[in-house]
Every structure is written in C-alpha cells, then in structure tokens.
Amino acid sequence: MRLRAAALLLALAAVPFLPPASGEGEDFPWMTDIDAARQKARDEGRPLLIVFR
Amino acid sequence: MCVRVVNMKGVDLNAFEFDYDLTLAILMMNADGTVYHRYGGRDWTSAMSRQSMPSLVQALAEGAAAHGEYAKNPKPPAARPKKTIEDIPVFAERVKKNPKMDCFHCHMVYNAEREQAQAEKRWNPEEMWLYPLPEQAGLRLETDDQARVKEVVKGSPAEKAGVKAGDRLVRLGGVRAATEADVQWILQNADRGATSLKIEVERGGEAKSGDLKLAKGWKVQTPLEYSWRPYKWQLRPNPGFGGPDLKADEKKKLGLKEDAFAVKVGYIIDWGDHPEDGKNARKAGIQKDDVLISAGGKVDFKGSEHFQTWFRLTQKAGSAIEFVVIRGGKQIKIRMDVLP
C-alpha cells in the first residue's frame, strides 16, 4: 500500500509540470474526462483520485 | 484512476462537491459517489499553508485503505441528477452572451450559485461562510499529520468537549475524519446555527468522545480570515477602486515602514454591473495612482485583499468612510459615501 501511495504521490507531484489538458495516454497518465474516468473506475473496481486545480 | 480537472465545464456539481474557492482540491472516492477522504485547504496566509507532502502521502494511504474496506460493504449514496455550472440559468445566459468563454474556473461556481439565488430572491448572506476551518470550533490540527490535534483553544467548544493537544481525531459528527479537508467538509455540512457534533478521538490507545457544542454564528470569520476567498469580490458594498500592495522600496520612498499598509489605486471601477461604485469613488476624490494608507481610521490591514474584504464585511450602505491617501507626497483625507 505504501508503494502504491508513493507512486500516486509522485504522479501528483508532477501535476503542475504537465501540459494543461493535453489528453490521455502514455505521455499523460492523468485522465481529464471526469465522466469517462468515473465509468472506467466503475468498470474496473478502482478508486478515483481527482485533483481539481 | 487519476483524474486532473482544470475546467469546471461539464463537471457534475452534485457528484463532486468541494470548496470551489480553492486553487487545489483533491477527492479520493468510489465511482459510486462515495467520497472516502478529501485533501486541500488553505488559510489567509498562503495557498499552501495547510498542505504538505507528508500529509498528502498519509491522505492517499487513507484513501486507498478506505477503498479496500468499502468493497466489503458498499453503501452507494442515492443517485442525484447531474447538474453542471452551465445548468445554472444566470451562468448559461453569461456564456450565451460571451460564446468565447470556454474555461470555467472553480470559483465561478460560487458566483453563479449566488447570482442565481439572488435573482430568485432566496440568497442568504450567511451562505458566504464556507468550509469553516477547524479553528472555528477551537481545534488546530497538525499540518503534516492532519488527524493529530496540535492545539486546543482555551474556552473553545473543542476544549469544553474534552479534546486535548496530541489527541488523534477519529470521527466528527459520526463521519471518519482523517484530514483537515475532511473536517472542513463535515463542518460545512453542519448547521450554521447552534448545533452539536459528537467528536471522537484516540488518546494513548484509548477511545474518548465528547460533544462539540457550537453556538449560533460559529461559522462567521473575521475579514482577515476571509480575505483569501475569491467569493469576497462579489460581495457588497464595494469601495469602487483597488490595486496592488506597494513594494518595500516603494514604501521606503514615501517614508512608510516596510510593514505599513499601502495600496496603490490601480483601477477605479467604471465597468461591469456596478459602474456607480467607481463614479462614487471619483466623486469623493479618489484618483488613480493615489496610495491608500488608511480606511475608517484603520491602518493595520495585512494588504489589499484584507482591505477589500474588510470594506465589504464591515461597511454599511448609507454611511460614510474616511480614507487617507498619499498624492504628490502629501497626505489627503477623502470622505466617501458607502453605496448599497
């Protein structure tokens, strides 16, 4: 769990340095479509971490 | 699943509720709408004053653990219809008039909701007291370990409830609270009148609890505490002018102390919904490039935003206020009527 938290933290720390709303994919691991992310989380049984900036 | 939202366009306000005045807010949640924990928050001193990497790591770990626990006994909240900022009629009208307007900032949600409520004559000014900090109940939490009580204010509801410094917060009002943002969410949803919340803490491995008895008006903040909120700009009365704080070298040139209050009049409001404010300020004698050093005899403002908030929260329409400005090296007194 600590590893998972650390990975999330690293990703989160990088948020301000990522290009705004550049899309999704390998270069941009954060989704930007909140409804699509919610559906994906629902389908995969995963939690959502949503950052509003 | 990590999501980054920089535009409130299309965001379901009924599913994603947070303090829309913040520049950073984090929700850890289930796709069914259950929010496990929240993170983010600030006070007047700075946008990062209530955040730190250790507490963020802790919050993420709490969120991940909560997700595992929730899966054993899920209790999805009742579904609510999707509501976006574009669904608020006054906002939709604004967008219609400005089709190029495409990036909807978080704080615009509050503006739109307030304007809509005012248009329907149902706005209660007390709604401006948003997301109270734990200090409103007499609790100061550690920044790096946000469930830990750092300090309890003497004579406060928290002290009367038996809370002590070093206690570990477990639940407030029956809701699990692991972060300061969790506490703020619980307080936001508590009655603004006299009310009582059960507070549960852990002390030396033992569970303790008490009643946090909050008196009527407990959500009210001072102008300084409120000064960081964008919400303040929409409140009235409005002085009709404003501008940036003078820098240290600029103050020195005017013979002012480094920590003195000094705001350069950078704009006089001749635009928007209330151009009469600027007209009133000009009529009183305010000029662009004046340096404001006193308002209503008060000189201890922490800066421009503090002054702007103080004016809106303390001045009454129909009264008059005296300003002192520096112009051409001389101090000038200006008396201005306060407009509704």
Descriptive report:
- The complex is a heterodimer of chains A (53) and B (340).
- With 53 residues, chain A is mainly alpha-helical.
- In chain A, 43% of the residues lie in helices and 9% in strands.
- Chain A is built from 2 helices and 1 strand.
- Chain A is globular and about 25 Å long.
- Mean pLDDT of chain A is 69; it is low at 13-26.
- Chain B is an alpha+beta fold and 340 residues long.
- Helix content of chain B is 25%, strand content 22%.
- Chain B has 9 helices and 15 strands.
- Chain B has helices at residues 53-70, 89-97, 107-119, 157-160, 180-188, 223-226, 248-253, 275-284, 304-314, and strands spanning 2-5, 25-29, 35-40, 139-141, 149-152, 168-172, 175-176, 195-203, 206-214, 241-242, 263-264, 267-268, 291-295, 320-327, 330-337.
- A 4-stranded antiparallel sheet of chain B has the order 7-6-8-9. In chain B, strands 11-13-14-15 form a 4-stranded antiparallel sheet, covered by helices on one side.
- Chain B is globular and about 70 Å long.
- The interface between A and B is large, with 37 and 36 residues.
Alpha-beta content class of chain B = alpha+beta
Overall pLDDT of chain A, averaged? 69
- Distinct helical segment count of chain B: 9
Helix content, binned percent of chain A: 40-55%
Between the first and last Cα atoms of chain B, what is the distance in angstroms?
Answer: 48 Å
> H/E order of the elements of chain A?
HHE
State the strand order across the main sheet of chain B: 7-6-8-9
**Computed structural class of chain A:** mainly alpha
Tell me which protein chains meet in the greatest interface and how many residues each side has: A-B, 37 and 36 residues
Mean pLDDT of chain B comes to: 96
Shape of chain A: globular
The largest β sheet of chain A comes out as: none
Provide the β-strand percentage band of chain A: 5-15%
Largest sheet of chain B: 4 strands, antiparallel
Low-confidence spans of chain B: pLDDT under 50, at least 5 residues? none
In percent, how helical is the residue content of chain B? 10-25%
Oligomer: heterodimer
Low-confidence stretches of chain A: 13-26
Distance between the termini of chain A: 26 Å
Radius of gyration of chain B: 23 Å
